[in-house]
Design brief:
The protein is of the alpha+beta class. 39% of the residues lie in helices and 24% in strands. β5 and β6 form a beta hairpin. α2 packs parallel to α10 and α12 packs across α14. It is globular. It starts with a helix and ends with a helix.
């Protein structure tokens, strides 16, 4: 008993050191427990991947070939380590013939994808910038009609991963997110995604999967990191300081757009069985004696562009890829323009919400559905677009929808969750 009293007396007399030691031990214990949980997740995923690798293949079959485009600079240089520890073992254990191509500088992924040979699957390991470079290089290829049928896997390793919530179940654990994305590639379930083709007057087109943003909220979002020293108040402070520099932050734009196209029916996932021989013979004889009448070719009608002038705080042109399994009547892109009558308080409140999710729009937002649109900016307009979180100089552009152009791997759990949200 005397020894216990002596210990407590020592702790009381050295309370500062004791408090510091408790904090260090608590943090260390929490960190070690997190590492232990991550290792358990990796072990479980490797066991699941090993079952794929044990499946027998025929003598005439070959291993599936996967080409991985990895951006080591993503996540402030942590992407390579994240991929090697969490994704690479799963792919190798599953018996996939993996070729890893690492980029060395910004823009290299476009050049690499233009020179890449045909592969069974393409895996993008990086963030929004890497993914946009890959799809842009892919759709600039001369054989893009054939190459765009290659299924694409996305492993979220970047600071911004806008497409990841549409394809995978996300959690607070980054290791879990990477593992879930990698396993969805092995399971092979895909979903078609729309693509935005954005073309200026002179440059080659750029392609995006999510959105094009232009306006005051985008401009403020790009400057929030400057106020890091304000901690959790940095977002609201950035919007408030912006109102002190200039107010109102209204943008004028003229939009010409085409009405949306009817969505054709989905193609069957499996080919129908071939009719029997007798039926085929009868059908050929019938076509021989009564050949079908050929319809005259339809003359293409000129495109009917509608024009609309908008005054807005922010303009966003986006796809429906946030929920790619939704059933729609039209193939269309959405044009969303926020109102031009925000007060300073409303601007700060709405901007803080958009920083968390840029696809949130107010009830007063003007929305148009179109198959293509053209943006005409007033002369002397400066600033930048955000195209899938990548900055491009603002200029007059034409944006066209390429419906269901690319196929991405999706987890079955996320597909079921999205379908439940639709009901």
């Amino acid at each position: 008993m005397a020894r216990v009293v002596k210990v407590f007396r020592t702790l009381r007399n050295n309370w500062k050191k004791s408090t510091f030691a408790v904090c260090v031990l608590s943090y260390g214990g929490h960190w070690l427990y997190g590492k232990h949980c991550d290792n358990l997740l990796r072990r479980e995923a490797c066991l699941e991947a090993r079952e794929f690798g044990r499946q027998l293949i025929g003598s005439q079959e070959r291993l599936r070939k996967a080409t991985v485009l990895l951006n080591p600079a993503a996540s402030k240089g942590k992407a390579n380590n994240l991929f090697e520890k969490n994704a690479a073992p799963i792919l190798h254990l599953a018996g996939v013939d993996v070729t890893i191509v690492k980029t060395d500088y910004e823009g290299q992924a476009k050049k690499l994808i233009e020179l890449m040979e045909q592969t069974d699957m393409l895996i993008v390991a990086g963030g929004d910038g890497t993914l946009q470079e890959v799809i842009t290089g892919l759709l600039r290829r001369p054989d893009q009609d054939k190459f765009s049928n290659t299924p694409i896997g996305y492993i979220p390793l970047g600071s911004h991963n806008s497409l990841s919530p549409s394809l995978h179940l996300l959690s607070d654990n980054r290791v879990s997110d990477i593992i879930s994305a990698t396993l969805s590639i092995l399971k092979g379930e895909t979903v078609p995604l729309d693509v935005l083709q954005i073309k200026g007057e002179k440059e080659q087109p750029v392609f995006a999967l999510m959105s094009l943003r232009w306006g005051a909220f985008r401009d403020v979002a790009s400057s929030i990191s400057k106020y890091w020293y304000l901690g959790p108040l940095k977002t609201k402070a950035a919007h408030w300081f912006r109102t002190l520099q200039e107010w109102p932050l209204v943008r004028e734009v003229t939009i010409s757009f085409l009405p949306p196209d009817l969505r054709p029916p989905d193609l069957p996932t499996q080919k129908p069985p071939r009719p029997n021989l007798l039926y085929r013979i009868i059908r050929r004889l019938k076509n021989y004696w009564n050949p079908p009448v050929e319809e005259p070719p339809k003359t293409e009608e000129p495109e009917k562009w509608e024009e609309k002038k908008l005054s807005t705080f922010e303009l966003c042109i986006h796809t429906h890829n946030k929920n790619p399994v939704t059933r729609r009547v039209y193939d269309s892109l959405m044009i969303s323009a926020e109102p031009d009558d925000f007060t300073v308080g409303e601007f700060i409140t709405v901007g803080s919400k958009k920083e968390e999710d840029p696809t949130i729009f107010t009830k007063a937002c003007t929305q148009l559905e179109a198959s293509a649109c053209m943006l005409q900016l007033p002369e002397g307009t400066s600033g930048f677009y955000n195209i899938d979180n990548e900055e491009y100089e603002a200029m007059p552009v034409e944006v066209r929808l390429l419906p269901r152009k690319l196929h991405f791997f999706i987890s079955a759990e996320r597909r079921d969750e999205l379908q439940t949200q639709m009901q």
